[in-house]
Amino acid sequence: MIVAAALPLVAEYGAAVTTSQIARAAGIGEATVFRAFKDKDELLNACIAEATGTGHVLRELASISLDEPVAARLTEAAEALRAHMERMGTVIGALHASGHRLTRPPGPDEDTPEDGPPVDPRAESFLALREGIVELIEPDRSAFRLGPDKVAAAFLGLLFTRLHSPIPGADAPLTPEELIAVLLHGTLHQPGSTP
Q1: Per-residue exposure over 136-174, b if at least 16 CB sit within 10 Å of its own CB, e if not
Q2: CA angle, 135 as apex, 130 and 138 as ends, to 5°?
Q3: 3-class SS letters over 47-85
C-alpha cells in the first residue's frame, strides 16, 4: 500500500519526495512508513523493485480474453507492455534525474542457486513476459509458421525496439496496430510476393 502510494510521487518528484508526502498519499501516519521501511532509501528501492517487476503486467496479460482474435490480443498486450515500460522509465528516470543512486537490493529471485550459475533477473523477466505472450498466441498455434515461443520473441523484439525514442528527424515509431500487422503479415502488400 505504501509503495503503491509512493510510485506516482516518486515519478513526479524523484528522490526529493518526502516520507511525509508519501504517508499523506497512503492515508497513514509518517511513523507507519518507518515501521514498514528502515529509511527512505529502502522505500525508494522498494519503488524501483515494484516499477521494474513484471507481476503487474503479467496479470494484465493473463486477463486478456483468449476469445478475441489474435491481432486484438496482441494489440492489448502491446499496450500493456508499453504502459509497463513507460512507468518503469518514468520512475527510474525521475530518481536518476534527482541524483538518487539506483541500487536495488538482491531479491530472492536473484540468489545464486546451489546447483547452477547466478540467476539474471532481466533474463528471468524477459522469459516471464515471453511466456505471457506465448499463452496469448497458443490458441492460434496452427496459424503460424513458427512456434509460439519464436513468435512471442519476435513480438517482444519488435515492441522493445518500437519503444525507444525515434531518431531525430525519423518517422514516428510504429503504432501497436502497425507493429502487430508487421508481425502477422510482414511489410509486403501481398504476403509471399517478392519486391
Answers
A1: bbeebeeeeeeebeebbbebbebbeebeeeeeeeeeeeb
A2: 115
A3: HHHHHHCCHHHHHHHHCCCCCCCHHHHHHHHHHHHHHHH
Angle at 83 between CA 179 and CA 109, to 5 degrees: 105
Whole-number Å distance between alpha carbons of 26 and 65: 33
Task: Please tell me the distance from the alpha carbon of residue 128 to that of residue 123, in angstroms, as a whole number.
Answer: 9
Q: What is the pTM of this model?
A: 0.76
Backbone region of residue 160 per phi and psi (left: phi > 0; alpha: psi in -120 to 50; beta: other values): alpha
Q: What is the DSSP secondary-structure string of 96-125?
A: HHTT--------GGGSPPTTSSPP-HHHHH
Closest CA to 40 of 19, 63, 26: 19
Please report, as a single letter, which amino acid is at residue 171. Answer: D
The rounded distance, in Å, linking the Cα atoms of 57 and 53 is 8
Instruction: Report the distance separating Cα 100 and Cα 103, nearest Å.
Output: 9
Model confidence pLDDT, tens digit, residues 83-136:
998 888 899 889 988 888 766 444 444 455 566 666 677 788 889 999 999 999
